[in-house]
Amino acid sequence: MLNRLTLTEVSAQLAQRKVSAREVMQACLDQIHRVDPKIHAFLSVNPEDALAQAEAADKARQPDATATHRPLLGVPIAIKDVLAVKNQPLSCGSKILGRYVSPYDATVIEKLKAAGAVVFGRLNMDEFAMGSSTENSAFIATRNPWDASRIPGGSSGGSAAAVVADECIASLGSDTGGSVRQPAALCGCVGLKPTYGRVSRYGLVAFASSLDQIGPLGKTVKDAALVLEAISGYDVRDATSIQQDVPAYAQTLNGDIKGLKLGLPKEYFVGGIDPEVNQAVRVAIQQLEKLGAELVEISLPHTDYAIATYYIIATAEASANLARFDGIRYGQRVAGADPIALYCQTRGAGFGPEVKRRILLGTYVLSSGYHDAYYLRAQKVRTLIRQDFLKAFEQVDLMVTPTMPTPAFKIGEKVDDPLQMYLSDIFTISCNLAGICGLSLPCGFSQNPKLPIGLQLLGKPLGEGILLNAAQAYEQSTAWHREKPVLG
Amino acid sequence: MEYEAVIGLETHVQLKTKSKMWCGCANEFGAPPNTNVCPVCLGLPGVLPVPNEEALRLTALAGLLLQGDIPRFAKFDRKNYFYPDMPKNYQITQYDQPSTINGQVEFELDGRLTRVRLTRAHLEEDVGKNFHFDRSSGVDFNRAGVPLLEIVSEPDLTSADMAYAYLNALKDILIYGGISDCDMEKGMVRCDVNVSVRPKGQKELGQKIEIKNMNSFSGARKALEYEIPRQIEVLQKGGKLVQETRRWNDVAGITESMRTKEMAHDYRYFPEPDLLPMVPTDAWLAEVRQRVVELPLARKQRFMRQYQLPVADAETFVNDVPLGSYYESIVAQTKSPKSVANWVINNLRAKLTETQTTLADLKFPATAIPELVGLVESGQISSKTAQEVFAETFATGESPAQVVQKKGLLQVSDTGAIEKFCDEAIAANPKSVEDFRAGKGAALNFLKGQVMKLSKGKANPARAGEILEQKLKG
Questions:
Q1: Which of A11, A156, A171, A179 is the catalytic position?
Q2: Is A317 on the interface with B (CB under 8 A)?
Q3: Residue B260 has what pLDDT?
Q4: Choosing from A91, A102, A155, A241, which is the catalytic residue?
Q5: Per-range mean pLDDT, top range of B119-128, B231-240, B352-361
């Protein structure tokens, strides 16, 4: 069962030539064949292409190379359907792109390919990454591997479910308001949102450009660190990427967090949190303290405004970002008597209700007469939220919070209540508004039914190293990451 | 009642860069449709814009040339509207914090120095071009993403002729500064006009009407020549004008209503999140400032003042910049700048054209033309001989003095030698001597011709005339 291994384990076995990349890839494909008809993590897979890449990786392996030399060589990594992969379909979980195939590779894909990874599959997601449950996919709802009647979280629901169901070794997702961390928490894996600008967005179909980041999902913290290391770095094709060298994240993990100052934002520990989630997070915090961290209560005074601010800025940007899907140059077209009619028909038929809702919201908040009251004010509040974090980070090295107020809810439970759905992102959204980094990792389970609970760590801008180190220290002192769902 | 027009112009020029504004595709006119395109300028899913550094520099340079200010903070914004020629259905432009603000364009109108103030010049991206066929339409995206500078004037213009002169002056400045080739036929310059009329003396402005779709400066002039009387006529007949956008129909020679204020777009501008704001540093600005050149009008005025040249000569040197620069590089070596200008404009330019060569191919040293002028002015060679000398200098690269010496062309000004020739001529032509004494002045010219013949053309003709006259009268 090679597909059940962590990236670190696969990498070591490949380096020792105990197994071939082809065998690992085949194991993943077998698992997809076995479980995906139930999980629906993948929208499509091209087995021939995946196996060909794996064989190429086997050939490329130098005789005496170690796992640390090219840790991703031959490792199957599955991709969220929002990232452009050359000659592969790109639909963003939407009907509007039709049978569109990307003619180019996203920078992260180029980097993964250069690292020798086997880049495969199109992972299901909420349409254009808008959602918290993957129910907004225009194609199918992905299931939570722990309970098929429940959502996997979103919008990178496919990315989290595929990792947890051992259909791939690791995956890429995108996180605009929690879309990597929240499904990682609900499915029970590690998900990381890097600092804004740490990873190039070139080739990531934009939802909200100033908030979007691509992030890895993996079975362990070290796995996430290895993928992060490969995809990070300045990119001349992304003017917002940061010109700073990429540390060797995985190699510097040492499990030592003695003296680390860990902030507990008091605004995050108020009512509304599920008791089991609350309990698991409290115990996890005690564990971190036992490991040598020093707990500090901090305040992020503008927390209450985060969701409103987010839904103004994100929808405003989305209203422009999604304007290009008009049926003129690519994707699905529904004919119309004139261009305006063609746009209306195409977009009316191609976008789902949540995407339409957000385009309307975004168009409204930018409209003449409302622009200052909504968009401009939201930008100001965003600055205050960022300042809250930067100020708090003068006192602490990291912050710790729940990732999600509840475990995974039932499919259909919140689809008709967008506001309730938006509240799923309450703990993850500020991180994107502030542009800092954040990570979710398993910290326990609810009892009946048994569902994963996530712990969120938030780090300073470009503080991924400290973030990963603390996460790994915690992970290695617990056994949560070894728990696997029983898949029919 | 007398009316006056108030006009403001928005001029778009394509910047002279090798590549497009956000990607590496060639900024080139005339390529087959959709060949200079890539995922970025086609707006494919997932792409991002990266600013063209040279376009940023040219924008700042244009600001400096137009005597404007370069703010220490500028940003790009998205202007949202749907149109098939727009790949992203938003245009990246600069809304409230452009790369240059203020400025002015100076030009001569009816012999008077005129000034039009500028509001701003901002950078944006061009769009594609729609083509309509029998039963379908197509879009060529070669032009999409070409850097475009929009220069917005204050409402300082008052007539169609003034607008025309302004546009030409602006074009000259931009070509001069290397900002744009301003080739109208290639669509590198386009302009929109804002015009209103009001009773003379009234302070409040009339209803502003925008006219689009002029693809030449004369088109803009014609549109204004049509639109201003149209507006006045409406008011004179007691009608009302509404704020609207009109389209210039070049074939019919009229403006037609496109949309009224109620139908105006709400562009929903907001800062472009894919691009960082521009914060020019001192070093960057200093680098741009080094590329500032003298403007055409200033150059013309300076040539007239500094070298005492007539308007025509100064204009020649303004229109032919390399020739003017060559002139400036040699003029310090002479006391007769006008004569040197004559040689450069009349003889040198003709030779270059004749031989299809350029100033870079010149074989002779920079000292040659001043030296030649010196030889003529000191009477050492005649103007006629000088032509021959110049031809030889141009062909061989030998200095005029060398040519004169080699060919023995030195003019004889020595009185003794000329007297000898005069005596011979008088002795040989008694009839002419008689005619002269009988009052026929033309006879002197004949005798002078004989002196030149005897001296094989080397006698100084002026000196020969003087001596002959003395001898005949004496």
A1: A179
A2: yes
A3: 83
A4: A155
A5: B119-128
| B89/A326 Cβ within 8 A | yes
Report, at the CATH architecture level, how domain B415-472 is classified. Answer: Orthogonal Bundle (1.10)
Query: What token pair was written down for A221?
Result: 């913290």
pTM of the predicted protein model: 0.89
Structure confidence by residue, pLDDT tens digits, A429-452: 999 999 999 999 999 999 999 999
* Facing residue for B39 by CB, picked from A83, A103, A206: A103
**Alpha carbon B422 to chain centroid distance?**
55
Structure tokens at A138: 């225009």
Q: How far is CA B319 from CA A53, B151, B315, B354, B361, in A?
A: 63, 23, 6, 19, 20
User: How far is residue B342 from each of residues B44, B331, B370, B372, B472, measured CA to CA in Å?
Assistant: 59, 12, 11, 12, 37
CB neighbours of B394 closer than 8 A, spacing ≥ 6?
A: B348, B351, B355, B363, B364
Q: What is the pLDDT of residues B430-450, one digit of tens each?
A: 888 888 888 887 888 888 888
ipTM: 0.96
Which amino acid is it at B381?
A: I
Residue (of A51, A46, A55) closest to A85 by Cα position: A46
Give the rounded percent of residues in chain A with a pLDDT score beyond 90. 94
Q: What is the DSSP string of A281-318?
A: HHHHHHHHHHTT-EEEEE--TTGGGHHHHHHHHHHHHH
* Residue ranges of domains in chain B: 3-289, 296-407, 415-472
User: For A376, which DSSP code?
Assistant: I
Q: Which of A83, A92, A104 sits opposite B39 (nearest CB)?
A: A104
What residue ranges define each of the domains in chain A, with the CATH number in brackets?
A: 2-258+466-482 (3.90.1300.10), 305-375 (no CATH)
* Residue A67's pLDDT band (cuts 50, 70, 90): low
Q: Chain A: residue nearest B90 by CA?
A: A320
Quick one: pLDDT at residue B423?
87
**Chain B interface test: which of A83, A94, A127, A237 (most B C-beta within 10 Å):** A237
Q: Using CA atoms, how far apart are residues A351 and A127, in angstroms rounded to an integer?
A: 8
Using pLDDT thresholds of 50, 70 and 90, give the confidence band for residue A424.
Answer: confident
Per-residue tokens: A203: 């080739």
H or E element: which one contains B11? strand B3-14
Helix, strand, or coil (residue B47): coil
- For B86, nearest residue in chain A (alpha carbons): A324
Instruction: Give CB contacts under 8 A, 24+ apart, made by B324-328.
Output: B324/B299, B326/B359
Taking the C-alpha atoms of residue B341 and residue B361, their distance in angstroms, rounded to an integer, is: 20
Helix/strand/coil for B308: coil
